[in-house]
Every structure is written in C-alpha cells, then in structure tokens.
Amino acid sequence: MDRNDSFREFVAAHQHALMRTAYLLTGDAHQAEDLLQSVLLKVLRRWSRLSHVERPEAYARKALVNQHISWRRRRVWTELLAAEPPDRPHSSEDSTLVRLVMRQALMGLPPRQRTVIVLRFYEDRTERETAELMNCSIGTVKSQTHYALARLRKLAPGLAPKLAGLETEEVYG
Amino acid sequence: MTWLRDVLVELADEAPRVDLAERTIATRDHRRRTAISLLAAAMVVVIALGGTLAVRLMPQAPTPTTSGKDDLPARGVGPLSHAYKTFCKPVSGKAPSHCRDGGWRVVTRSGRTYHVPEALPSLSPGRTGLRDSPLAISRDGRKIAYYSAKEGTFQVRDLASGAKTTAPMKLPPNTWLYSVTRLMLSDDGRFVALSKVPDLKDPALLFDMRDRVVRELPARWVPIGLSPDGATITLAEYSPNSQLRTISNLWPPTSPGNSTAVILPQHYAFSPLAPDGKTVAAVENHSTAEKPCQMGDLVLLDPLTGKKRKTVPIRGLSADVSTIYLRTWRSADEVTALTTSVRCRPASEVPDDEPAQIDPPYRTFTAYAVNVRTGEARKLTTYRAQGIFGIAMPGPPGAI
Asked: In this protein, which residues make up the domain named RNA polymerase sigma-70 region (chain A) (predicted)?
C-alpha cells in the first residue's frame, strides 16, 4: 500500500464527518467542499508524518476549525441571507421551518461564535476541548457561547424559548 | 442541548456527499508539478544569465497535464480511474476535444487522459462499418485489455511496465466484434473473457493469456467475476430473465466444467462479483414497457442459490436519478453506482419509425459509492459518455 492509499483510507473514513462540520461552519455546500479540500491538502502534505500519529483526524479537525475562522476573518462578509422563511405562522415543532430559521440564524453569527456553537452543541465537545480546537482560553469559549446563544435568540425569536438554558457550568478538576 | 443538537444534526444531513480523496491528490500533484516547472524555469534564467553549462543539473521537466490529445505512452502510466469511448459527430451537443471516431480514451486517477491508438476503433475510417471494440480495466486500474488492431486479437497491457501479452487465437473483428461485446480482465491480468449480447452464433471465450490457451463459455452471458485462480467464473444474464450462473473446474479447456444456474424471480441490474467472491449486489428493476426506469431496492444475492441475503433501500441519490448501473467494488462494503437522470419515455410515446441514434449526444453519468449494508449513497464524481456501454470502469463489468 503506497502513501496515497493510506491517505485515501483516511479520507474515506473521516471525510463525511468532517464535511458535516464544514457544512455547519460555512452554511454552503460549495464553501464546505472548498474548506474541507484545503484542509485535506494540508493533511496530505504532512501525511508522511501524520500517518504515524495516533489520531490524524484530530489534526484535520483542528485545521478545519482554524481555517474556517481565518478564512472568514479575511473575507468580506459577502453572505446574503437566503430567502426569508415562509411568512406564515409556524410552530417551533415544525422541523423543516425550524431548520430553515436556525440555518439563517447561524449564518448571522460571526465565525468564532458559529464555530463555538457547532463544536459545543453539534460535536458535543467540552469547553476545554473546544478551547483547544479553537486555540483560545476556556473563558473565551464561555463568553463566545454566551454571546452566540444571545444572538441566536435575537435572530430567531421564535426559537428563543428553546435556546434558553443551554449554558451550563462545567467543573474542571 | 438535545433539541439544539437535533436541529444541527438535521442541518448537517444536508452536507454534500462527495469523495475528495482523488481530487485532493490530483490538486497536490498538479501544484507540485507547477512548482517544479517554475523552479526549472527560474533555473534556466539564472543559468542563461550566468552563462554556465549547469543546465544538466536541472530537474527533468515534468510531464504536463495532458489535454486529451496524447497517445498512451509505452510505459510509466499510473492506475486508471475509467475509460470511455468516443464518437465524434453526436446528433446534438459537442464531442470531446481531440475526438477520435470510435476510439477509446483512458483516464488516470490523477486526471491524465490518453488515446489508446492500439485498440481497434469501433468505427472504420469514413464512418463506415460499425463494430463494438471493447476495453476492460483490471480492478486495481493498472492493466487494460483491448482488441489490438495490429495483432487481430485481444491484448493485455501493464500500464506501468508496458509489458503486453497477446491472446493465442486470432479473432477477425468483422465476425467477432458485433452486437454488444462485454470484456472482463482478471485482477492479475492473466485471464480475459469475451462475451456478446445478443449472442448470434459464436460462443463466449475465456483466454488464459499466460499459458496461451482458450476455452469456450456459454454464449450470451455477461462475465461478472472470476476466482483468483481462474478456475471458477460467475456469469449473469439480464434478459429475458435475470439469471446467475457459476461454472467451476474451467481448466483444462476441454473440461466441461461444473455449472450451476439459477433463474431469479424478478429483474435485476447486477454488480460485478463482490470481493468476497460469494456475493453479487443488484438493483431491483421494476420497469415495464409503459413504466420504464423503475429502479427498486439494493439486494445482496448468493450467486449459487439466488437467495437474497439482504435488501436495503438506496438513500442519498439525487431525486431525479432514473437508471442505476452497478460497477466497481470500492471495498467489501461499497459498490460504485453509475446513474443517469434522463426522462424515460414509455414505449407508447416512441414512434415506430423513430430512427436509432448511432451517435447519441454525450450525457452525464453521476457516480456514487453505495454502502451495501446501509444503502447510503455518497456522490463521487461525474463522467461524460454517450451510453453505459461506452464507459469502462475498473473490475469486471456489471450486467446491465
């Protein structure tokens, strides 16, 4: 098996999970593909070393998060909100509308706040893990989470009750 | 938190399903070549300015990415991703650039494209004389089999070394390459099987290219798998009934072999034999003349008994997919599905006097990797070809 084959195996095993995270971070299929491919290129360039470490996917995930944040910092904010959610009364249990509203609200968050929401609430990472992935302190994760949830409640007032009470205190030994 | 997570999981379900491995490797290789080219160019400038003879020290110029006009080099070609046949005057749309009428083009995993001039074109010069000159790719993509115009029979070529083996028997193309030919190359490149559907009068053949012997196989069956020792072949038939057949003890060539055939109770489109050598995947085909393109669930079949081992619905295909063809096994659990999204006309909408399209337009085939345990499909890539028999994928052909 040559080096490319082991890289292919790595990609086959992890690209789906990484793509899901990339999609949540970018909110766009094409940007998600671009983001993940640029990360996989980094991984491939270092593959001779990474293929021997225990969890090369951890490197890829961290690169994905940081690449997303640095891309978003550099880029002009060009994202336009997609079509408005249907203008009709809806229940917060209507899953399609909830998804639509939540996607728009997520897109309204700055990159670090969106990242913290994805890592904490989608990937179920602890504050410590989130801080390590984002290269920041636990305090920053706490504050970013707080601001992100507050902004989500503002952007999606219909979902505000559901978004209340999501901040929890973690105890560190 | 569970509620928010559930919403985010549902959102993440919309993420695209693509395979980025090959694209990433190709991008890396392309950038590397570009970097080397720039470095080489810079060195030339420096050397020219210095008036030295150090040109010898320059790295060898990299081969540029081909534009599709090059012939297959004699050796040193990487593994293939697929091959496609080209006819150059489609009734609508464009033919590929540098098109050669009736010729085969091979595409490497890194995206290089080459003509295969040694393979007999499927169209005589002047667009007279249509025949079906097949090409097969070994499962690892490193060998091809084709009908050699020069040798008048089939050849197997190792793409890296350039080594060739030639079948022991001449086969005049006008009497052998008619109807739809199906060609299978064994994983090690030693065996080549040729079959034709419909069969007309000639038998199907199995060549042992190493020991230079040939044996006959029952006509009309599509070869879909061969055991590593070449002693057992799996065949499929899709019309008028779906059937599977296994013949063992194939050698010596005079041996009658032991044959087991099973007629299946419904219609299927079959995959090649799975890597375990004892499973065939298939897609249920519920089509009728008035309701064409009705593809059903994916099933795993025992080729000896025809018994269904598993049935799963295929999920994740584009909603407009009308036809599914199963091809290369990517692993023990994943098979490649080539799909098309075309409007299928009921027989009553097709005029009786509508002429057949000899040179149909090129259309898109979208490849998915389908997990045969879960039915989950993820998009891999797209190909352009004029029809399913104009694309060769690594490994044995599927039927249909």
From this structure: 11-77, 105-154
